[in-house]
Every structure is written in structure tokens, then in C-alpha cells.
Amino acid sequence: MTTPPSPGRSAPTRRTVLSLAAAASASTALAACGNAESQSGAEASVPAGSGGATDAFPLTVAHQFGETVVPAKPRRVVVVGLTEQDVLLELGVVPVATTEWYGERPHAVWPWAEHLLGGAEPEVLSQSDGLQLERIAALAPDLIVGTNAGLDREQYDKLTAIAPTVTSIAGSEKYFSNWADQTRQVARAVGRSAAGDALVAEVEDAYARTAAAHPEFAGKQATFSQGEPYEGVLYVYPDGVNTDFLTELGFRMTPGLETWAAEAGQQAQISAERTDLLDADVVVFATEEEGAVDRLLDFGTLRSLDAVQQGRAVFTDPVLAGAIYFLTPLSTTYVLEHLTPLLAEAVAGRSPQEMAIATA
Predict the structure, then answer these.
(1) DSSP conformation class of 5
(2) Which residues form a coiled coil (predicted)?
(3) Residues 47 and 177 in one domain
């Protein structure tokens, strides 16, 4: 098993959900559970302040491979999944190791979460050639978190021989299962289930407030696409696949795209001859680098889409694209802060047809 490749450069084989300035006022509310004590390198990750564990240890966490007993408040947490560091940091737990997905950000922590490191420098693992079991063992973890790690039973058994390991809830997809389920699962593992519930509630409330502030979004048709074609195909997201960040705001997704997906839960694969299928009231392209917009618009008939011609297409910057793909409470807060004004401009037909550079 290997990690899903970068969503901007090739097609994730699994569901790649809302995959990228600190996260301002809403982020502050989400972080109300308190910041973690910062440690450098592979020092212990110690909960601090009001964000400390509230559940009684030992505790038992049920997951797809059975149950894991966490005997005591974990102080050395290793992340073997792609995004769990966001949830841990917001809960006040600095992991001693994270795992790189894409982007090569320092410590595999993106801008919306950097402020929660507090100067700590987690070691960065890789899944590109499978789990780095020797490195993980050398870190002497007392908890391994892998809710977004694509683990199979054999890998789980190898990890749990090193330390108590918590994976996704039963019935989850291997990668990028429901963000709220993952948040609550990570929170349970570190004894902060109430704080996990609070994070989920804050995000749901933020969606509701944003939708209420923008009634013009309701009922508008939207398409979400990756920012460049890959091997002659553009990967576009059918309803229910990475689209919550639009549907929760009142948009309805362009219908019929699921018929172009290899299987349920995957992106539609759109050739240059069928780019007309993307046209909608608003089209969001997750562009990630300078020059991507021109390369994208030269693919098929994208440049002639009504949405492009009429100023109703949005082109993200790299961090905003990553936040859309990451799908954690922290990244969703960043998306709502930075994407919402772009969506409002697009609905009004005033979106500049170039990459939007977010400011902190």
C-alpha cells in the first residue's frame, strides 16, 4: 500500500476530501481547547492548559480492526496517516512525528496549523515505500494514530506491536473517511472526546453561519475540479466526493459526473473532448502553482466555458487548494475564511480569471 499521490499532480485512488495564514477568528474558536506545550524534535508531546485530557484512563477505543486500550495519557504520539496532525494540534497535543502526504511543508504541517506547533519540530515520516516501522519504533511512541493511513490488518498488527494504535471507525474508507468521524476518533484516542465533539460542532456552526450570510449561494450549480490535467485527463469531483465545502454552503453539484468515474467514491475522469461537462453557475479549480491557470484553460474547451468567459470560475492558490483537500476542522476553517469571498465574487460574475492569492 502506498499513500495517495499529490491531488494536484495525479489522481488519488481514494476519496480525497476537502484537500489548504493562520486560521483567524474561527480558528481561534476551534482552538478553545487550548494550545499544547511545545517541544522540539522528538520530545514528548504534552497536553497543556484547558486542553488537557478529560476522559478517564485507561480507555478503550473501538475501530475497524477491533479495540485498542490506551493505558495512560499519551505523551509521545506518532501520526502515520496523512492529516491527523491537524486534529491533534487543535486538541493541544503536539505529535513527536507526522507523515508527509504532499506539499513538503515544514514538519508536514500546513500554514493553518503552524501556529499550534509552538516551536516544536516533529520528525517527518513517509509512507511512499510503506510504513517506516524501524523509525516509528525508535521514536518510542506510547500512541500511534492512523485514522487516515490506509492501513490493512497486517500493517495494524505490526504497528500495535510497537505501541497502542488507533485506526478508523468500522466501515470507513481506507483514506479520507468522514472528517467528523475522524476528528472524534482522534479525540477519543487522546482522552479528549468532549473537545473533539466541540471541534465538530464549531465547524458545523461555521458552515451554517456562512450559508446564512450568503443566501445567493443557495441552489446555484457548482463544479469542483483539480487544477491541471494529468496524463490527458482532468479529475473532477461528483456530488458527495470532496464536495461538502460547497454543498454545505447551499450549492448543488453538477449532476451526472459520477458516470465518468471508474468506481463509486472516485473522481470523474474527463477527457479534453468532454470539458463542456464542467460548465456550471460556479466552477472551482484547485490550481496549485504559477502558470497552472493557462495550462488548465488550454485543455479542451475550458477557456470557452460560460463560467470562465463570464467571470464565474475560481482558481485557488496552493495553500487554499491544500486546505480543500485536507478536510480537517482547521483546514475547513481556512477554506471558509478564504474561499467564501471568492465564491461570492464568482456568483456575481466578478471573479478575476487568474490564481487568487490568499492573504493571512
Answers:
(1) P
(2) none
(3) yes
Together in a domain, 221 and 318: yes
Average pLDDT over residues 9-35: 35
How far is the C-alpha of 289 from the C-alpha of 308, rounded, in Å? Answer: 19
Range of the domain at 305: 214-347
Q: Are 52 and 41 in contact (CB under 8 A)?
A: no
What per-residue confidence (pLDDT) applies to 72?
Answer: 97
Cis peptide before 58 (omega within 30 of 0): yes
Residue 40 included in any domain: yes
- Grid cell in block for residue 179: 472528517
Assess contact for 293 and 287: CB atoms under 8 A.
yes
Q: pLDDT tens digits, residue range 220-231?
A: 999 999 999 999
Residues 243, 149 share a domain: no
Q: Rounded to the nearest 5°, which phi and psi values hold at 114?
A: -55, -40
In a domain, 158, yes or no: yes
DSSP 235-285: EE--TTSS-HHHHTTT-EEPTTGGGGBSSTTS-EEE-GGGGGGG-SSEEEE
In this structure, what C-alpha cell is assigned to residue 66?
Answer: 477491533
Residue 355 pairs in a beta bridge with 315
Cell 485530557 sits at which residue? 53
Residue 229, phi-psi category: left (phi > 0), alpha (psi -120 to 50), beta (remainder): beta
Pairing between β-strand 268-270 and β-strand 234-236 as defined by DSSP bridges: antiparallel
Whether residue 294 contacts residue 285, with contact meaning beta carbons closer than 8 Å, is answered with no
Lowest mean pLDDT across 42-51, 97-106, 240-249: 42-51
pTM of the model: 0.85
